Amino acid sequence: MMNGIIRDQAQPLRELVGKSNSGMKIVSIASGKGGVGKSSISVNLAIALSRLGMRVLVVDADFGLANVDVMLGVNSKYNISHLIQGEKKLYEIIQEGYDGVRFISGGSGVYELLRMDENQVRNILQDILVLRDPADILLFDMGAGVNDNIMRLLVSSTETIVVTTPEPTAILDAYALIKMVLKRVPSHPIRLIMNKSDSKKEAETVTKGFKEVVRRNLGVEIESIGNVLYDQEVTRSIKRQTPIIISHPGGASAKEIMSIARTLLDLPAHEGSSSRLYRLFSRLLG
Ligand SMILES: Nc1ncnc2c1ncn2[C@@H]1O[C@H](COP(=O)(O)OP(=O)(O)OP(=O)(O)O)[C@@H](O)[C@H]1O
Ligand SMILES: [Mg+2]
User: Fold this and answer.
1) Which of 28, 234, 256, 260 maximizes ligand 1 atoms within 8 Å of its Cβ, making it the mutation to test the pocket?
2) Which domain covers residue 71, as residue numbers?
């Protein structure tokens, strides 16, 4: 009974996306535990996807506690709060960051944003879906944990990337989040990024164990799409307000993010000479 009620509440937002038929890929980046690296990954992944030719719009959906703009070194004048208060239209609060990536700031320290109702979230999503200059990929950088709005957006996205670290606490919370999402929508596609591991071996071992637990207990196969290792440059890049993919494009973390972007687009993990040639020809031929 309880599940039935929850599922009904989730339906309208999901239907909105389903009916829009815009073909837009909507990727929500979520975690159970906070501080695991969602925002760092969202920002860098957005730039990576843009470099692969996608039009990307990042929505800082950590409403009220947003920090994507800070990571991008942009001082946002307008944010979601101006939208819900009717002061600005959606296209007026969209800003541009590195590599043509557009983003919407989630607003910081605005109490109303923490308690938006379903209609307000629905209106935001609706505005995005009918943008005159649409995106190919929408990235939702979610807040940590689970609340009604997080749940609604997760199940309304076309896929969810769950970010975790190898710490048992983060793993447990990631499991709890996945369980709740699948309870609402058993077929919802979920992919996993293991962040901040000390080594590739640790990342692979923990990922393997986690996937096994999810398979056994929830009957679902989740796909691992990358392991970003612990890298002090990630923290430094946040202090410098310049994403690591810009400041250290040749480093292991940036390369892994590029590979994650390619996997998301169903491209081979590494750029082969044929796709390089293809890009060259595309450019030459305009
Ligand atoms: N691969 C990494 N190596 C080292 N530090 C990292 C890595 N990824 C993220 N961090 C650090 O972890 C901290 C949290 O990162 P971030 O803000 O991206 O996490 P979050 O999941 O978005 O947090 P919140 O739940 O508060 O939104 C930051 O200090 C960041 O520098
Ligand atoms: Mg964050």
Assistant:
1) 234
2) 2-277
